[in-house]
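Re: the 176-residue chain
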Amino acid sequence: MLEVLPANIVVGDTVLHNFKVYPDRFTLVKKLVWYRNMFRHSFGNTNPVTKESTTKYIENIIQNSTTRVMYAIEFKGELIGVYGINELPGKRFLLDHAMRFSPEGDKNLFSDIGKRLVYMVGEIDSDALIFIAIKTGNKFAEKAHNYGFFAPMESVELEGLNYGPEIELKKFVGLR
């Protein structure tokens, strides 16, 4: 269902480019490897990543673009981060892998992007359950989602999800 999302999304001075159409794959891989290894303890999987594994990760996302979309985020032409959406069974949509490589852009930029993506998913499916998965203590991830109200997920909503106890799953219940 996510294939209906646009290839490019404009949010103020920022453009989100679907990984499928982002032309500078070299810089994308380089920044993802640097960020992921620098902050690997903020992720559920803390193993280091390589250029090769990251390239494979990007290719996998592109090939599975009906259920997963990742956007490269550019502010005034500079790659400053990525943000994604993952569609899961049961009309569940995970806002996923928000990573900011640079302080460029408005301090609430990732919050604005999250709000736009929530709106777009709601347009695709008004009955969607939109949720986030944050490693406990990851203050950046919590701040990136300050656009909305989130509540703990109920056991039936967690069915089929495999996250460790260090990951908090919260569902979106409304905009602030």
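Helices lie at 25-38, 51-63, 109-124, 139-144, 155-158.
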